[in-house]
Write a structure and sequence with these properties.
heterodimer, A: mainly beta, six-stranded mixed β-sheet, B: 121 residues, seven-stranded mixed β-sheet, 50% strand
């Protein structure tokens, strides 16, 4: 199975900050990497697919980059509604493994 | 509007069985691969199973292989997860989710609200 490792596990940031979350795959997944946002008690929401493609309706302050084994999710200017947990997922092969999550908290 | 509505969760004893259903609407169900993803209380997301658009191909996480069966009824736009030999560690919210098989990477683009399965005596 492909292991997905996110860092950091949590971070504290202020509104307006630039936030970067990284995701590393245990083997190359080319660009088969997706990012999700989950708020407490809610279902996950797709933000980015294919490493860098913005899902329809997602604000442009979210962006993704990377290929192979190393990927990044960037929030250019953190907004109050962005405080949540973020997950990466590889869709290269089954099992479609997720990272352990990164919780973004208010500083 | 795409909607996925899960049902069938509840409290079950260890070793018992439960069948989850997911009613889909707002899209051509028979054209899309579908997944089940679970989340134990306070924990992260775990992919459980997937089924292709016509139901002829399925995949499972090792943790549920041989105990869970995914299936679908395209005539009635419904996805199922039959769960047998349930264990305490299967306790989780179970999400039904659609893969966007119209893109190269098949991201999971729509999710249901989830149904809670609790395995306890």
């Amino acid at each position: 199975d492909i292991q997905m490792t996110q860092s950091p596990s949590s971070l504290s940031a202020s509104v307006g900050d630039k936030v970067t979350i990284t995701c590393r795959a245990s083997q190359s997944i080319t660009f088969y990497l997706n990012w999700y946002q989950q708020k407490p008690g809610k279902a996950p929401k797709l933000l980015i697919y294919a490493a860098s493609s913005l899902q329809s309706g997602v604000p442009s302050r979210f962006s993704g980059s990377g290929s192979g084994t190393d990927f990044t999710l960037t929030i250019s200017s953190l907004q109050p509604e962005d405080f949540a947990t973020y997950y990466c997922q590889q869709s290269y092969i089954t099992p479609r493994t997720f990272g352990q999550g990164t919780k973004v908290e208010i500083k | 509007e795409v909607q996925l509505v899960e049902s069938g969760g509840g409290l079950v004893q260890p070793g018992g069985s439960l069948r989850l259903s997911c009613a889909a609407s707002g899209f051509t169900f028979s054209s899309y691969w579908m997944d089940w993803v679970r989340q134990a209380p306070g924990k992260g997301l775990v992919w459980v199973s997937r089924i292709n658009s016509d139901g002829s191909s399925t995949s499972y996480a090792d943790s549920v292989k041989g105990r869970f069966t995914i299936s679908r009824d395209n005539a009635n736009n419904t996805l199922y997860l039959q769960m047998n030999s349930l264990r305490a560690e299967d306790t989780a919210v179970y999400y039904c989710a659609r893969e966007n098989s119209m893109t190269t990477v098949n991201p999971t683009d729509y999710w249901g609200q989830g149904t809670l399965v609790t395995v306890s005596s």
